[in-house]
Amino acid sequence: MTIDLIISRLKNRYPPGKFNSRDPFRQLIATVLSQRTRDEVTDRASEKLFSKYGTLAALAHADVAEIEELIREVGFYRIKAPRVKEIARIISNDYKGKVPDDMDTLLLLPGVGRKTANCVLVYGFGKDAIAVDTHVHRISNRLGLVSTKSPEETEIKLREVLPKKHWRYINELLVRFGQDICRPVGPKCGVCMLGDLCPVGGK
Predict the structure, then answer these.
(1) What is the pLDDT of residues 147-198, one digit of tens each?
(2) Cβ atoms within 10 Å, residue 3
(3) In whole angstroms, what separates CA 193 from the centre of its chain?
(4) Do domains 2-16+131-197 and 24-124 have the same CATH topology?
């Protein structure tokens, strides 16, 4: 099957390694910070934030101005600062300090959409979910796995065509593939391990 072959080749090139590397709290906050922000910037800001506020309780009682200063590098930091404080407060007060591990509850948190919730489920809890960011949306369409206009639609369609055993891996694999070879501009089609399977390769 083409999808199984695609996943197999990607795993050979990019052995998955992120799963459960972060606790759900850190994964949730870091993913909120990552919205419209480059990965390297998110990593720096997250490290600064967690170095000072390492627990949900600490972040729930943090001063918003101090949070702003720590995450200043990320996009829309003035919006995200009170948002992450409120997320921490809600989880501390309403969920006994435990990050929810289901989609519906995660979506009730401020600033949490499906992509963020799915990232928490995959990387924080090791659950089978499909986290669709710009890389996953773009490459899934390039490869002809789906024909969609938005990340939300891509998630729905991938759920239909992608065997569940691959769900938790697709985000990391396509992100790394998109950064390395299948770039938005100037993709390296000549050295792509999926060239013979790609309907638009080299065009």
Answers:
(1) 999 999 999 999 999 999 999 999 999 999 999 999 999 999 999 999 999 9
(2) 16
(3) 24
(4) no
For residue 97, what are the CA distances in angstroms to 30, 88, 104, 150, 199? 17, 8, 18, 33, 47
* Full 3-state SS string of the chain: CHHHHHHHHHHHHCCCCCCCCCCHHHHHHHHHHHCCCCHHHHHHHHHHHHHHCCCHHHHHCCCHHHHHHHCCCCCCHHHHHHHHHHHHHHHHHHCCCCCCCCHHHHCCCCCCCHHHHHHHHHHHCCCCCCCCCHHHHHHHHHCCCCCCCCHHHHHHHHHHHCCHHHHHHHHHHHHHHHHHCCCCCCCCHHHCCCHHHCCCCCC
Domain residue limits, the chain:
2-16+131-197, 24-124
What is the pLDDT at residue 21? 55
The CATH class of 24-124 is mainly alpha
* Confidence category of residue 19, pLDDT binned at 50, 70, 90: low
Q: Domain 2-16+131-197's class?
A: mainly alpha
